[in-house]
Specification:
This protein is an alpha/beta fold. The chain is built from eleven helices and eleven strands. The strands form two sheets. The chain has an eight-stranded parallel beta barrel with strand order 1-2-3-4-5-8-10-11, surrounded by ten helices. A three-stranded mixed β-sheet has the order 7-6-9, with no helix packed on it.
Length: 284
């Protein structure tokens, strides 16, 4: 069920004081886990696809899986491109029926970032597709995108207001101390910075790199204005752990369905937990 645009989904979250969980899809089993969890929790959900998965599966294959998940559930599910870096990728996702796209030009100098994002907004809005962009650089690695600790920079509140006004984006990913991938220690979020951004920016704010962030910190970020929370690594971990356990317990097993099938419930349990933390459970 689509029924709502990304703008509507995040607008309702903004008004309701909760965040919508956005979960990265890498295989059919991951999509099924996310969709089933959303259904059981009666939660709106964002099904995210990144460039690495598009390169791995092919955009037609992965878009078809996402659209099937969308059709199978009775709760709002929107399909979103996570961390796209080129105009060509944006255009391909619009052509293939994505509901929302993220253009990540945060590695570019500010003026070049604005110019590329504005171009993407013009393309997407003409097709009724929402646009997310990032200001500041969230550290860590996600597939083929890597930002070192030295490169990572927090979002400047004044610049954020200028950026939103100049580009016309629908949501803003902020860098407030999170990172992609597995944390080496406990992350410390800059909530005061988030407060300052929220005062200056009226559109929904997005938290990237939320896997591994303590539950209370996520809840605090949501209470201070985060409307979309991205989860990727914390789905990969139970997928891999379940697969390793099955391979160890049943070394003679060769049926891919019996190897991969049990990973779905392991991932779905994580999705359900995150939906409750974000406050979107029961909001469908």
């Amino acid at each position: 069920m689509k029924s709502k645009t990304m703008q509507q989904l995040l607008g309702e979250a903004q008004k309701g004081g909760y965040a919508v969980g956005a979960f990265n899809v890498h295989t059919m089993e991951v999509a099924q886990a996310i969709a089933s969890a959303a259904e059981s929790e009666r939660s709106p959900v964002i099904l995210q696809i990144n460039q690495g998965t598009i390169k791995y599966a092919g955009i037609e294959y992965i878009a078809a899986i996402a659209k099937t998940a969308q059709e199978q559930v009775s709760v709002p599910l929107v399909i979103h491109l996570d961390h796209g870096t080129t105009f060509e990728m944006m255009a391909a996702c619009v052509r293939n029926g994505f509901d929302s796209i993220m253009i990540d030009a945060s590695k570019l100098p500010y003026r070049e970032n604005v110019a590329l994002v504005k171009r993407v907004v013009d393309l997407a809005h003409a097709a009724g597709v929402a646009v997310e962009a990032e200001l500041g650089k969230v550290g860590g690695t996600e597939d083929d995108i890597s930002v070192s600790e030295k490169e990572a920079g927090l979002t400047d509140p004044d610049e954020a207001a200028e950026f939103v006004a100049a580009t016309g984006i629908d949501s803003l990913a902020v860098a407030i101390g999170t990172a992609h991938g597995v944390y080496r220690g406990e992350p410390h979020l800059d909530f005061e910075r988030l407060d300052q951004i929220k005062k200056r920016v009226s559109i929904p704010l997005v938290l990237h790199g939320a896997s591994g962030v303590p539950e209370q910190a996520v809840k605090e970020a949501v209470s201070r204005g985060i409307c979309k929370v991205n989860i990727s690594t914390e789905l990969k971990q139970p997928f891999a752990a379940t697969l390793r356990r099955i391979a160890q317990d049943s070394p003679q097993e060769i049926d891919p369905r019996k190897l991969l099938g049990p990973t779905r419930e392991a991932m779905a349990e994580v999705v359900r937990t995150k939906m409750r933390i974000c406050g979107c459970a029961g909001k469908a």
